[in-house]
Amino acid sequence: MSDKKMISLTIDGKPVSVPEGTLVIEAARQLGIKIPHYCYHRGLGNPGNCRICACEVEGAPKPIQMSCRTIAAEGMKIHTSSPNARRFQSSSLEFHLDNHPLDCPVCDQSGECKLQDYYMQYGLYESAVREDKLHKGKRIPIGPHVMLDQERCILCTRCTRFTAEVTKTHELGVFGRGHREVVDLAPGRALDNAYSGNVVDICPVGALTDRDFRFKVRVWYLDETESICPGCSRGCSIYVHTNTKRPWHNEGRRVARLKPRENPEVNGFWICDEGRYGHKNLDEHRLGRVMRLKPRPEDLSWSAVLDEVAREIKEGSAAKGAEGLAVVASGMLSNEDWASFNELFVRTLKIKRFLFGPEPDQIGAEDDFLRRKEKAPNLRGGLELGFGREIKSLSWDELAKSIESGQTWGLYVVERDPARAWGTARAKALLERLDFLSFQSPFKGEAGDWAHYRLPATAYVEEEGHFTNFEGKAQKYSKALEPLGLARPDWQIFDDLRSRFMEGEGSSGRREKAGALA
Amino acid sequence: MSQGKPVFSAAEEKTLKGWTTRFPYPAMGLIEALRQVQEWRRHIGPAEESRLAEMFEVPLRRVHEVATFFPLFTQKPTGRRRIGICRGLSCELGGSDKAVRALKEKLGVGPGETTPDGEWSFEEMECLGACEMAPAAIVNEELVGAASEETARRIVSDPGKDFRTKTPVGPEPKEHRLLTKHFGEPGLETLEGYRKVGGYETLKKAIEMGPAKIAEEVKKSNLRGLGGAGFPTGMKWGTVPAKEKMPGPRYVVVNSDESEPGCFKDRVLIENCPHGLIEGLLIASLVIGSEDSFIFIRGEYKRQHLILEKALAEAEKAGLMGRNILGSGLSCAIRLTRGAGAYISGLDTALLETMEGKKAWPRQPPPFPTTHGLMNRPTVVNNVETLMMLPPLLGIGGEAFAAMGTAKCGGTAVYSISGHVEKPGVYEFPMGTPLRRIIEAAGGVRGGRKLKAVIPGGASTPVLTASEIDVAMDFDSLRGVGSFLGAGGIMVLDETVNMALAARNIERFLAHESCGQCTPCREGSEWTVRILERILEGQGCPEDIPNLNRTGENITGKVICALGDTVGSVTRAMMKKFPEDFKAGVAAANEKAGAAA
Q1: pLDDT band at B591 (very low <50, low <70, confident <90, very high)
Q2: pLDDT averaged over chain A?
């Protein structure tokens, strides 16, 4: 990839080879050697002001160096846990803690705090502080998502560098001087940029906490699953943090928070607030029952409902023409879903009319950083199968007209709510004209009430699959939670339904799919 | 901010806009503009900050950082006049507490407060660079003199009056004086007076010599940086990349931010001979190839700023600077730029940050300023005295200059002497002169008392005992006894001084001036002060002394800049050499505890 010269050195006796210009702290990381650090962050540079990442450079005139400021040189012998290096690390930690309130029991950072972690690894001394701690501001809401505690702050400047260099919005600064200085908002400003939540992630201590997550669950009760943000076509890598061990916490919601997962090719270290807080409704207005609503409401088994849906499609098509059936879907489908969707609706049922494009209900704000205007993660997955190429998307208006004119008698809606596009009254009027409406989704939405059949699908955190982002990168997301109720992945519903149209083929069970299509 | 009443009047806008174009980069005028607003409004509010951010095209965050970093700027209105009493070590020894008490009685308000009629704000200040007048007093950034109790009261009654005493410059006879040789001759501060003693003749000579030959002479001279670091000047100049290698502008900046307790020689040098500095700066600019040079002067040197302004105007009018200097075809503009009350601005990289209109957080070299300095351009930062040495140096030649000093430190040094001596003032001696001789020249210890200790190079340098004063005053010899020559700010302490008090005074200064960037210095300096205060109150505990030693060691050498290094070393040296003064505070606590039991 790089034609840079390689540099060989040893760290704690282990040889390592790194490209020219690599920092010692990074060379150590490559060996799995962790050097404590606060101010240094790969996404935010190395001001070298926290003075904790000391290492000893054998034979150097000044042997103790900051590993975040030292560039690896040929033949260097580095020691990261020699007595001198350890002493430096530990003494620096003492200064970080001497005015720290040590309020861990009531601090939301507890359990993922670098002051705690490093104290256990590099500290373990008895406190020599006999003085009262300095007092600064507590519990300052600095924006819609972030709470500031200036007493816990160790002034590593990660947050101010983030707002200065990454978002370039400059809401935060270090004001005052010396021990009186504080991180705070510039006068009259609020930390309300579209990426504000990231400052919570990069804050190594409990100075910046997430107003949404604060006091909901202790972090040691959380489980972590690798996933992809479904909020837009960027496909940022995320972690889903789930709370199942203490279900009575977090207001009963299973997903406690989303965190960015480093991915240099897509999102670096960051995610936007829109994506970060997009999990809030994951357990709300969910479909869990398999139902026929019209003409006579009844809970059905999957097998029974799919038999009925298949029969209605067959009979309707025979009587009113197959072209009168339209399908609404979107980039919310995974690659696995798209493949089965294609098999069912295009190859088997020969449907011609689809609505899948990012019509206004899936268009939102974008910027030149991460946020994309298509608020669905996987339009690109459909594109590979012809959706958006040979198969053009209808607009909501076109679909409405075709219902009004009677051209469309049946509609199969997947993970999308027509009421959001048409408005409640119009959507109700239009959908009630239909002879057949199958509504398949994790969420009830509004249109769910007007459907003939309501099929519960899994949310992305309850399944595994792949999303292909706008650049064509197929990325895997993993299953973090069990499905709610009887919900099934979309692809499985499509496959099972398709089997109703296949002569001589039984209901297909779960089968592995090639997800990484792109 | 666009709706409603405009923040500034049209005339004010014009003045402030003027600062956006005064320097090569707009933001360089930000601190001057903030000074202007502080003067007009007596504080800097959010509306003013916002408007300045727009005018200077910098984030509001940055304006607010600058406005809250520098003590000159206030967020709440000050009184119409600001009176400050210096609390630096020499001033504390000189009775600053008495002056503070007298002022408190007179004004009816204490330090940090403003009189109810809004007329006076009263502040205790860090070193004002007038240690010889201890305790020094300042009104609206202008040094007004020595604040005895009586004078302190008179300053308030008669605010326009100048109560300064004349600063002695020595020694007499002048045979070994190079830089201060003509000091005291009438009119030296004017162009005419300076020319009478041969002023600007060296500049002519230098233009004929050309940069390479001058640089060679300076190398031969063993001239060392006299601002404190003692780095060989010729070597520093030599690290500036050649114009062919790195085209584009390069700068010479005079560091005139003298702010360390014990140091005031730069102030006296400028007052006596501003043209000497201009000539030295022009010569250095010639060598470096700078067509834009700057004099960065500390904000509290208001009078010295005016003196330089006047001298620069004279020099420009006489064709000595600006375009086509003395018909040589060479050009060099010199502009004045000011700090706003931060000691750390005197550190070269922090000085450059200040000049760029940022708070003075030191940069972490490499790269060094000589390759990446002001606005990332090659920049030489030299102290006032260093540059003023150039005309006499070239006058006598590099070899003769070197011969005056020691093997590695050429020429002379100008010392500020204050504290318990008979004649505090400025004294010039060849490098290597024994400290004892310099103290004797200043009249010896005041009142026939016994000498206890000497701080040889300014408050940040480790203390020497009375038995160590035969040390030769030069960069290398002082290192040999565990201290530094620094900027030659000699503070003499007699037998009455409690060293724990001296330590608290200096550490309080360093804690006040710590920029807050590196954790060990930011936290450790304040912690050190609080422990020392407890010891001074007789509330020490036995662990305090080992703790101060341990934390001191943990700061020195472990931070980005030299200020932090001194935080750890000042008290340690005092505890090592005068342990009884520190143990007393611990013992007192033990006695109390014993009595209670």
Answers
A1: confident
A2: 94
B135-164 pLDDT, tens digit each: 999 998 888 888 889 998 999 998 888 888
Domains of chain A, CATH where assigned: 6-97 (3.10.20.740), 291-499 (3.40.50.740)
Residues in Cβ contact with B255 at an 8 Å cutoff, skipping those fewer than 6 apart: B227, B296, B346, B348, B351, B381, B382, B383, B384
The answer to whether residue A296 scores a pLDDT higher than 80 is: yes
B526 contacts on A by Cβ (under 8 Å): 99, 134, 178-179
Say what angle helices B10-20 and B46-56 make with each other, to 10 degrees: 50
Sheet holding B379-383, edge to edge: B333-338, B292-297, B251-256, B379-383
Closest CA to B168 of B418, B387, B491: B418
Return the C-alpha torsion angle B548, B549, B555, B561, nearest 10: 100
Confidence band, pLDDT 50/70/90 cuts, at residue B4:
confident
Q: Which of B566, B548, B554 is nearest to A86 (CA)?
A: B554
B504 and chain A in contact, CB less than 8 A: no
Distance, in Å, from the CA atom of A377 to the CA atom of B227, rounded to the nearest integer, reads 62
Q: State the amino acid at position B82 in one-letter form.
A: R
Tell me how far apart the alpha carbons of residues A502 and A495 are, in angstroms, rounded to a whole number: 10
Is residue B576 within 8 angstroms of chain A, CB to CB?
no
Range of the domain at B515: 499-590
Taking each continuous run of H as one helix and of E as one strand, the counts in chain B are: 25, 17
Return the pLDDT at B198.
96
* CATH number for position B521: 1.20.1440.230
User: Which one of B364, B527, B537, B547 would you mutate to disrupt binding with A, by most A Cβ within 10 Å of its Cβ?
Assistant: B527
Answer yes or no: is B523 within a domain: yes
Pairwise pLDDT comparison (B162 vs A89), residue with the higher score: A89
Between B492 and B161, residue with greater pLDDT: B492
pLDDT digits (tens, 9 = 90+) for B62-101: 999 999 999 999 999 999 999 999 999 999 999 999 999 9
Averaged pLDDT, A341-365? 94
Mean pLDDT of A238-267: 95
Whether B543 and A170 lie within 8 Å, measured CB to CB? no
Q: Please check whether residues B399 and B260 belong to one and the same domain.
A: yes
Measured between CB atoms, which of A50, A163, A175 is closest to B519?
Answer: A50
Beta strands B412-419; B425-430: pairing state: antiparallel
B121 sits in which H/E element: strand B120-125
What residue of A is the nearest CA neighbor of B563?
A178
Restricting to A residues 187-216, those with a Cβ less than 8 Å away from any Cβ of B are 187-189
Q: A390: exposed, middle or buried (C-beta count within 10 Å: 0-12, 13-18, 19+)?
A: exposed
Separation between Cα atoms, residue A78 and residue A85, nearest integer Å: 10
Chain A residues touching residue B514 (CB < 8 angstroms): 177-179
Neighbours of B205 (CB within 10 A): 14
Any idea what the CATH number is for the domain that residue B426 is in?
3.10.20.600
What is the reported pTM?
A: 0.95
- What's the start-to-end Cα distance of chain A, in Å? 22
pLDDT tens per residue, range A304-319: 999 999 999 999 999 9
My answer on whether B91 and B23 are in the same domain is no
At residue B190's C-alpha, the angle toward residues B184 and B193, to 5°, is 60
Instruction: Render pLDDT for B432-458 as a digit per residue (tens, 0 to 9).
Output: 999 999 999 999 999 999 999 999 999
Name the token pair of A57: 């450079």
Same-domain check for residues B209 and B352: yes
Q: Give the SS3 label for residue A410.
A: strand
Which residue is listed with tokens 């607030």?
A273
**Could you give the CA distance from residue B173 to residue B330 in angstroms, rounded to a whole number?**
39
Q: How many domains does chain B have?
A: 5
Nearest to B111 by CA among B136, B82, B140: B82
